TrEMBL record:
Low complexity composition bias: residue spans: 649-658
Annotated CDD domains: ATP-synt_Fo_b (cd06503)
Species of the source: Cladocopium goreaui
UniProt protein name: Reticulocyte-binding protein homolog 2a (PfR2Ha) (PfRH2a) [Cleaved into: Reticulocyte-binding protein homolog 2a 85 kDa form Reticulocyte-binding protein homolog 2a 285 kDa form]
Ranges annotated as biased composition (Basic and acidic residues): 623-647, 975-995
Region (Disordered): 356-388, 490-539, 607-691, 793-959, 975-1025
Compositional bias (Acidic residues): 679-688
Chain intervals with Basic residues compositional bias: 366-381
Length: 1025
């Protein structure tokens, strides 16, 4: 039987069946919610969940991982939820046969796929992050999944409250901490004590430096997710052993909140029973939103003249048609006509005129016209000739070129009123109704295109729809001065976060309908009325984005539901077909359009089922449990569950306490089962709230309970001596008779009956007011005493703090003094050491100079000895030469007769010459000429060189010295000294020759004589330098 067949009557629903709903969480985790089973947690798909903590994508491998590690996961579950058993799991189809020996299950109920409850899913997350023997890539992937999941939970909740106990703190008590999107960090003093701070801080900083766990916050105010990841990271050393219980407690409370608010966490939400869309109607037609988007992005030049002729006959919108033609022509420059035609043929059927065949490029053969499929559970309305429906004549045209302008008007501009049109043109191009477009089409298109690009392409920059542009421009035009530019530039607008999502509107601007212009405040309803279909119709639905959430809103009743984010690359849209609005996702083949009303009813029914047990769902759910909160499906190991104890023991006890006859119970009030549980109060205050009996003037007796302000008329026919007695065993009050004429009755029980009413009598009401005033006075005194006590405590703490501050200041001063003394001592030591080093250097310098002087003396002595040695050698050499010359002269024959006169003449000549000296002639003096020598021919002197040659010689000698003036002068002086030295020795040799010649002449007559003593004095001085 086809479940969607309208001809079959619906089967009778089995009472054992339950509704199940499926939602998707971050990470594409599929979660199934079972309605009507309060003991069942939300069921997480094992295969889709484990893909987020394992690298493998193979489903069989993931199932094997789950089976192999289930015992370890149960151990983790016992650590997180100590004292509770692991909740049972659903059976899958394939697990039902081999269930024996595999543990407890949820009876015969089973799902299509293998699932696990929320607490086991959270245990898997803890195991995947804290397991030491795991690959780094798998652990990082698990940490990323945990971060994304917790970030999503905080975004949905807005504020989370946890009860935590600081680690290593003496007499620590549970403290409530609050986490919100604005303040998502925790003071470290709420997590650990200063005693172990030294063991945690350096590990935190090292983990933060490595960057493996993506920790970015500081240790003194850690981000709540950073703290959980750090406390569970096995690479954190001893930190997991210390901080892991705190992280387990936070995750356990988070899991309890998630399981209770799974409907709010869902990214997408649908009923599994209504998830089939194969037999739904195939929707044809371009929606208004799609057409408006195509007006800005996807259009064809074939529509230009048709668009210009739309309002040709209407004088009221003549200018609008001209401006619209400008916008159409602009888009025609960018998008090819083929792209638009493909989009149109995808959504519309185009039979030929007066024919039932469909024209198609793939096949030219005529086919039978395809009839639109019937919508599920709804008959298709006939096509009308006017109003919002498109006329049947529109289907008689195959292309836009043959389409009459009036049909184009109905298709394009009917939903776009004049205000929206001009606001759109002002936003894109800065056009106003007073502007006149250019007459020539090419110039007009070029000008519009340039203006749109000059303004930064506002539509493409923001991604806003026409309704969002309208809302922005209505606020923008209020700020534009008279005669100013009404357009905007993209640089002044918010940028869209991604190609799939539009940019958010500025603060204070929201999209509103025309009916809501005069209304103040938001018209959306958070909850739902008892009657789901009151005022809801198939028309009037729209998509509205508010605070980053996509809402499906009914414009008339203002009923709304949250849609969640569309798939990547898609956007939500609502289009109309046959007076029915349909919800669809663009560019998403997996999503099939469905009626907005049906979708609204399904989601509303599912959310109502989730919140059935809640009288008023609170957006901020505090988690103030001291230990891990008990979740659905968990039972205590050692004793019965609290709910069982409450429902099994309390009624029995109440009936033992109060068992009067039925008549008396009916007369005085309710049965003992209606006895409420009294809250714990101060004993003195409780005595003040003691019920009392009052009598009026007529003698009637009333039992008055001053706390709730109720009274009960007592019967006086049987007993007139009623009194109130305190029962210490039952910790309550009883109505008894002094004469024991009636059975004692519990005041709390009888005052909870139907006959107890509010005190209306003025006299009795004044008595109740007096009791209230007395209690309030007592409370005030109690508060004052507590305040005084608190002040004394605060004063003691302040005194203790001041003493501690003084002690710290004294220790700090002593530390400063000690540090100053240490610095002074060090300075003295440095000065002494410096002085010693200076004296040692001076002593070393003196020793060095003394050694140099001694070395100079030794060198001078050696030099003197060398000079003496050279003198002796020269003297010996000269004596040897003289002796050789004397021997040679004795061998020459005597020629006294011829040479005697010459010798005599020579002696006279020598006597007449001036005496020669051994000094070197000074510069500029010439050597005296020897007249006895024959005149020799003087060599021809070279011609006197010109000044240029002299300058060139000097320049060459100067250049040979490298351009150094001092070096050149030293060279010249050295050269002159060498020349004078050479001339000196030439004169010495000439004189020696003359003296030798005279001695040879004298040797003929005189015997050989010793060398004269003055010879030694005439020896030249030798300069060894």
């Amino acid at each position: 039987m086809d479940v969607d067949s309208p001809d079959e009557s619906p089967p009778v629903r089995d009472s054992t069946l339950v509704n199940i709903f499926e939602c998707v969480l971050p990470g594409d985790v599929a979660v199934t919610i079972v309605e009507g089973r309060e003991e069942v947690q939300a069921q997480w798909s094992i295969s889709s969940f484990l893909k987020n903590i394992f690298s493998t994508k193979d489903t069989d491998s993931l199932r094997q991982h789950f089976a192999d590690k289930l015992d370890e996961i149960k151990e983790v579950h016992e650590r997180i939820w100590p004292g509770y058993v692991v909740p049972p799991m659903f059976l899958s189809k394939h697990d039902q046969a081999d269930q024996e020996g595999r543990g407890e299950s949820l009876g015969p109920t089973f799902l299509k796929t293998k699932t696990m409850p929320t607490s086991i899913a959270m245990s898997w997350i803890v195991w995947s992050v804290s397991k030491s023997k795991r690959r780094d890539i798998d652990r990082v992937k698990s940490q990323t999944f945990l971060r994304n999941l917790l970030v999503h939970v905080l975004e949905v909740a807005g504020t989370l409250q946890f009860s935590v106990v600081a680690v290593a703190k003496a007499n620590a008590r549970a403290k409530d901490i609050e986490i919100s999107e604005r303040n998502d960090c925790i003071d470290y003093r709420n997590l650990w004590d200063n005693k172990i701070k030294g063991r945690i801080v350096w590990v935190w900083e090292e983990t933060k430096r490595r960057g493996e766990s993506q920790i970015t916050s500081n240790w003194d105010r850690p981000h709540w997710i950073d703290f959980i990841v750090f406390a569970l990271d096995p690479k954190s050393g001893s930190a997991p052993q210390l901080l892991a219980p705190v992280a387990w407690s936070i995750l356990a409370q988070t899991a309890a909140w998630m399981d209770t608010n799974m409907g709010r966490l869902a990214l997408s939400f649908q009923s599994v029973q209504n998830s089939r869309h194969k037999n739904r109607q195939e929707n044809h037609g371009l929606t208004v939103r799609k057409l408006l988007d195509e007006l800005c992005f996807i259009w064809s030049p074939n529509i230009l003249r048709g668009a210009y002729a739309v309002h040709r006959e209407s004088s009221a919108l003549h200018r609008a048609a001209q401006a619209l033609s400008v916008a159409v022509g602009l888009v025609a420059e960018w998008i090819s006509p083929k792209q638009l035609e493909d989009e149109v043929f995808k959504r519309w059927n185009f039979p030929k005129h007066n024919s039932t065949a469909i024209t198609s490029k793939e096949s030219a053969k005529p086919k039978k016209a395809a009839q639109p499929k019937q919508s599920k559970g709804r008959t298709r309305k006939p096509m009308s000739e006017g109003g919002r429906s498109v006329t049947t004549e529109f289907y008689n045209h195959a292309t836009y070129e043959d389409m009459p302008p009036k049909h184009l008007n109905q298709l394009i501009v009917k939903k776009l009123d004049r205000e929206e049109l001009f606001l759109l043109l002002a936003f894109c191009f800065g056009f106003s109704p007073q502007d006149e477009p250019r007459r020539k089409k090419p110039e007009m298109l070029e000008a519009v295109k340039s203006e749109y690009e000059r303004r930064g392409s506002p539509i493409a920059f923001t991604g806003w729809t026409v309704h969002e542009v309208k809302a922005f421009m209505l606020d923008h035009l209020k700020k534009v001065k008279k005669g100013g530019d009404c357009g905007v530039h993209a640089r002044l607008l918010p940028r869209r976060p991604s190609p799939e999502l539009p940019a958010p509107l500025p603060d204070g601007i929201s999209v509103q309908d025309d009916d809501d212009k005069d209304s103040s405040g938001s018209s959306e309803k958070e909850g739902f009325s008892e009657s789901e279909d009151d005022g809801l119709t198939d028309e009037g639905w729209k998509i509205q984005k508010k605070k980053g959430k996509y809402m499906l809103v009914h414009t008339e009743t203002k009923e709304s539901i949250e849609l969640g984010h569309p798939d990547k690359g898609s956007t939500w849209e609502v289009y109309q077909d046959d007076d029915v609005d349909y919800l669809n996702q663009t560019d998403n083949d997996d999503w099939e359009a469905m009626s907005c009303l049906e979708y609204f009813q399904e989601v509303k029914a599912s959310e109502k089922a989730l919140d059935k047990k809640k009288a008023k769902p609170a957006p901020k759910t505090p988690m103030s449990e001291r230990r891990a909160p008990r979740m659905k499906g968990m039972a205590e190991k050692t004793r019965a569950a609290p709910s069982e104890k409450k429902h099994t023991q309390q009624p029995a006890q109440s009936q033992e306490e109060a068992s009067p006859p039925p008549e008396e119970e009916e007369e005085f009030g309710a049965s003992s089962d209606e006895s409420p549980q009294a809250p714990e109060e101060d004993e003195n205050e409780e005595d003040m709230w003691m019920p009392f009996i009052a009598k009026d003037r007529a003698g009637k007796m009333f039992l008055i309970d001053p706390k709730p302000g109720k009274e009960l008329k007592l019967p006086v026919d049987k007993c007139s001596d009623w009194e109130i007695v305190k029962n210490p065993e039952k910790k309550g009050y009883e109505l008894v008779s002094k004469s024991n004429k009636d059975t004692p009755k519990d005041v709390e029980v009888i005052m909870a009956g139907r006959k107890a009413k509010k005190v209306e009598d003025e006299a009795r009401f004044k008595l109740v007011q007096d009791v209230h005033a007395k209690v309030e006075k007592y409370k005030d005194e109690k508060v004052q005493k507590a305040a005084l006590k608190n002040l004394e405590k605060v004063a003691e703490e302040h005194q203790r703090a001041r003493e501690e501050d003084r002690e710290k200041q004294r220790q700090k001063t002593e530390a400063h003094q000690k540090a100053a003394q240490e610095r002074e001592r060090k300075m003295i030591e440095d000065a002494v050491k410096l002085k010693e080093d200076k004296e040692a250097k001076a002593q070393e310098e003196a020793i060095r100079r003394m050694k140099e002087k001694e070395q100079e003396k030794i060198d001078a002595e050696k030099k003197k000895q060398l000079e003496e040695k050279l003198r002796r050698e020269i003297q010996a050499k000269l004596e040897k030469e003289e002796a050789g010359k004397s021997d040679k002269a004795s061998k020459i024959p005597d020629k006294a007769g011829d040479e005697e006169g010459d010798v005599h003449k020579t002696k006279e000549t020598e006597k007449s010459k001036p005496e020669e000296t051994d000094t070197v002639p000074e510069k500029g003096e010439s050597k005296p000429k020897d007249k006895s020598k024959p005149k020799e021919e003087e060599p021809k002197k070279p011609a006197k060189s010109s000044g240029t040659d002299k300058k060139s010689d000097t320049q060459e000698s100067f250049e040979r010295c490298g351009g150094d003036v001092a070096g050149w002068i030293n060279a010249q002086v050295k050269q002159e000294r060498q020349l004078a030295h050479t001339k000196f020795w030439d004169r010495v040799r000439a004189r020696e020759k003359r003296e030798a010649k005279a001695k040879r002449k004298e040797s003929k007559s005189v015997s050989t004589q010793e060398q004269p003593a003055g010879l030694q004095s005439k020896l030249p001085q030798i300069n060894l330098d």
